[in-house]
Structures
1.
Amino acid sequence: MNFMNDTIAAISTPPGLGAISIVRLSGADAITAANAHFKGTDLTKVASNTINYGHFLADDQEIIDEVMVSVMRAPKTYTKEDLVEINCHGGPYVTQKVLSTVLGSAVRLAEPGEFTKRAFLNGRIDLSEAEAVMDLINSKTNLQERAAVKIVDGALSKMVKDLREEMIKVIANAEVNIDYPEYDEEELTREKMALVTKSVRQKLRSVIDYSESGQVLKTGVKTAIIGAPNVGKSSLLNMLYRGERAIVTEIPGTTRDTLEEEITIGQLVLDLVDTAGIHQTEDLIEKLGIEKSHEMIQLADLVLLVFDGSREMTPEEQELLEATKNKKRIIIVNKSDLAPVLDLSVDHINISALNGTGFNELKEQIESLFLSGIENSSSATLLANARQLGLLKSTNESLTSVLTGLAEEMPLDLVLIDFNEAWKSLGEIIGENAPDELVNELFSRFCLGK
């Protein structure tokens, strides 16, 4: 199939009722296909980057809707192809009818992510920028949005291209020395390779460290609410959720399994798990719930360990203090609205889940644990996704092998193999040498119409 002559269409707005829906077309026949059903200005003659008022007609010339049609001509479009966006009134029936009308022999339904895939294949964006488009769509906090925008704007691409440019000069010099040893510049080439390798590794190391610490911005913080029965774990979940997600009663052991909820706290997304109260019991169902609670302590990125400030600590709670001491945790003393009885010598926060006291302090501590050095770092290069981060690590490992080979005075042609591998791994981040299967799989995750 000739890619540039293949025209696609899809609905680009979310399903459901709304003020406006957009049907998008891209390809060589996009303008003529839209114009065939448009009553108004001749779209084939309008200037690029204009929006045109008229009516959209069915095949029998019956008016479907009053519309505004944007016309953008190649190559200065999102896909670098002719692009048309039909803005109609929102609603499933009207939008679907506009789409089905433009589909035909010259226009087919787009695959998920195909508009962005075309932008990549036509050279408008690279693979890292394409991935960041989806990150931007899925962002839930200001920091997630800022991180995605930096990559969409090319921060990662520029860094990768600059590093590869440094490396390709060394590769060229090394290959000349291997092919023409009579030039006798191998020692200079080794020195240059060592300098460039150390420089690239230093830059990658800072990016890798920053990216690893920033992964919680993308994946969310798996957070376990742990404690004895009736200390207020479910009330804490409700306070954080600001709703009535969990059942709260005075009966110990109400929560017998785990309850999960995703919430946003400041700049972080927390995957909250409210666990069964840990205590001695002969009830089989409660025992299974308590086993899950212990499992969650090990799996969680953050433990919120809750105590009842109106009573003394139990032996089981003392064991929880010990079991969580090597985890990222925040110790919470609940029921500060009652007369204090519990005396804790470790750092903790006093809250009342009943009336919301202590919420701001808890929020600040959570953010401090995970965002220290991230939130205010405007100079950081990126927050890479898992694929990009893996390729950065592979590059770093190959460069480490290069330095080892140079130190052990291995033949230059063998050292160059690792150096080339590093260069190729960097290229895969932006889509150079990326297998078709990977590209297709990545874009299949996009929504239809993007």
2.
Amino acid sequence: MKDTLGVLLAGGAGERLFPLTRDRAKPAVPFGGNYRIIDITLSNCINSDLRHVYILTQYKALSLNRHIREGWTSVVAQELGEFIEILPPMQRVSANWYMGTADAVYQNIYSIGSEQPKHVLILSGDHIYKMDYGKMLQHHNDSGADVTLATLPIDPTEVSRFGVVEVARSGEVVGFHEKPKSTDLRSPFNATMVDASMGIYLFNTDVLLPALMKDAEDPASKHDFGHNILPSLLGNYKMYAYNFVDENSKDAHYWRDVGTLDAYYDANMDIASVSPTFNLYDSNWPMRTRVRQYPPAKFVFGEPGRTGMAINSIVSAGCIISGAVVRNSVLSQDVRVNSYSELDSTIVFSHVNIGRHCRIKKAIIDRDVHLPEGTVIGYDQNEDRRNYFVTPSGLTVVTRDYSLYENPVSADFLQPV
């Protein structure tokens, strides 16, 4: 991987994760108690021995930048030329902000060129999966490809949510179909499934850079890899599919786009379950993050009706469960749940205080929220909608200034795509 440069796209607005993305970029949203979403892809990079990574940020990136600076820049050996480096929009070759995934890379074309990589690996910072990019590079070299894109087998009923890739038996890509309503295509690797793009692209640099420059000059282009760059290269260069090899050590492939509140919630609930599909405890594929200095979690009081306990839950450092019961939940650092309260199927971000006699179910509590004694959330959706943000599926999201979010946006943002 020494001749490969990773370019991680982390500048999306994340509108479908609103209000969690009102003040932070989507890749900076907490995940699984200790982590941020971007940590999953960065861990894949380190575990794949990819140690030259640019992170392209744009939207409300302060907390993301701080997280990368304090948790990731020291992971690589800078004295050996390794780096994990943030590249904010510099408008060096354009007066615009990033206008698409391809334009984001094009606007950093000088930074890419200065590293003189043989290959460029385009990644996204908002998916949950485990993948060895070194295996993809080996496949790319063995096939003699100019471009390789990672594909994932999906059920034919899901094609409207994905870019569908038409793959020949040789593994060569012969067509693209962007989110079709239905398709008769089937994967040559699995006759019951369809090959979908994972948004992971490996280019020979001498193919990528001219394509980006040509696309930048096209006023009709959406400046997007899936819509423009890849179709423009099809038939002119060798383009192969790489069928996703999951490092998660489970029977089923695990790849999740956590771009909606419900998908994000479900992925966290899986991690808190007895036998999670996505395994955070695999020492062969460690997940890294910024380590913060908090004391150990503590559970206090054992009186009848006032016992501090957590069942089927993740409880991070700095938490105190004081005479309360936590079930099927994920608690980030520095959370206090006070006596006689009950949490069920809830995600709690850091620095939250939940008062006594609270009852909370199927909710996401954003950081720095202080819930007063007797607060009830998740038991009456009509009442919740008067005070909090509620999705069509009944998931309640509570932010510091939650009273501002009565009917804040249309439900269109919350629909899966």
3.
Amino acid sequence: MWANGFKWMFLIIGTMIGAGYASGRELWEFFGAESGLAIMLFSFLFASSCFIILSISAKQQSSHYLPVLQEIMGKRLARMYDCMILIYLFSVTVIMLAGGGATLEVIHVPYWLGTVFIGGMVVILFLWDTRGMTSMNALIIPVLILFLLGVLIAFQSLLGFPIQFRVEQQHNWPSALTFTALNILPLIAVLSAVGKEINRKGEIWIASIGSGVILGGISYLYNESLLQVSGDIMLYEIPLFAILKHYPYFMVLVMSGLLWLAIYTTAAAGVFGLLSRMREWLKGPAWLIALLIVSIMAPLTTIGFSTLISILYPLYGVLNLYVLAAILLYPILHHRSIVK
């Protein structure tokens, strides 16, 4: 039970900790000053959402997200959100593949070769099907967490841990709702794909509480560290580098490598979500379907997606609030089915 619980926990964290999160950009955009309570609230909402999604997945013994969506929202709305999730996963994965290529340009690898490399690594992962995805997260995510925590704790100790929490100054709490909502679609897509592999309720408790506590703790520490360098963040495209300027150049290279791994885990999670849904229409080994998906995406990595994302993300932010509300209300409306 514990081993499986940690496996699902790392899958959740791997889906959440993408390049946007690991770089500090997402946290800085949503939180910032007066956000301690918001991050605590996010941790609770996130853990609750994971628990509900995993519980429904286990009950449905699902292999993709559509049965879970239908259970949460009804068949009519599920069709609309089915299309939304496909577009979301596709667009985000294309951006991750492009980001993986751009990141390797730092060490003078041509952009096209870097894109082919990360795409190839994603395809290779699915030679082992679902086990490849969960094993990769179990290997990479603890390393990402340890290095990120190490940098943040060392930075705070350098400053003498100037962290303060004053209840009267916690005015940014609504950000918890939008931040959780923006991350809910990939969670549904990925966690619904493993429903048939969940054996015990205890696995769900471990995965949900563990991921909520870890992500909440890292988010709080990361946000407080970014506040200490807020005057320099505008000078950096990646906020994490505003913290790393206090470290030797070697650490910048190490963390750049870890950012690439964060991009990789997000790209893999996107392909995993798409693959699990497309298996209803396509038959064949997982790696072959993954190769097809990545091959379709490859030409699109040369197109600028900033305009697409500037339209899609605000739209998802609004529409996802409804999904989040439906998930959180599910235990109230279906009490008997969620507690079994």
4.
Amino acid sequence: MSDQHPFQNVTFPSSGREAHGYLAVPAGGTGPGVIVIQEWWGLVDHIKDIADRLASQGFVALAPDLYGGRVAHDGEEAAQMMQELPEEEGARLLAGAVDYLLSRPEVTSSTVGAIGFCMGGGFVLQLAAQQGERVSAAVPFYGVGQGVPNDFSGIRAAVQGHYGEQDTSYPVEDARKQAEQIRRESGAEVEFFYYDAPHAFANDSNPQGNYRPEAADLAWSRAVAFLKAKVR
């Protein structure tokens, strides 16, 4: 069997309309399912690379396109596109992505994991709160934006968060409060890790130059081990 995994652009029904995404499948052909949720830039090559990296670790990874094919080219445009995405619409599209991923014959798990970055880190928590038992592992990386829910009581997933101590978009004090709120309201297993790094430290293509390879590698190894342990 080749160590090259197959991937494809896919369409799936969501809230009565057609949604799009990027699906990466392990070389072995099957594996547990993980939803990959984009940053505010859109479904860019970096997010597809995250799905590819997960496939190389044995997961069937689906990255839904929350912007309908649009991508941002600078921070101002990205902020505008994020603000133009209604939280309810994003949540509905992600619910359809869970349905679709669990219906795929390649997926061996009865639940999915969810991993997301920046805006997607907020939507990871939204999706876990919305889907309850269907999401068994939620991994937000520096989650910000309108995707973060106000109420975490619906979360049944174990939660592993990754946040930068130099993050000016989401101060570390807020992240610590959020971890405690999730724990208190959901009763879920919650562990947040904090890094000597700024916002978006795991994005090696970030145009704002925030990538920190040591922190990124450590966070990634923790996230992959967590997903392997929790998604069944």
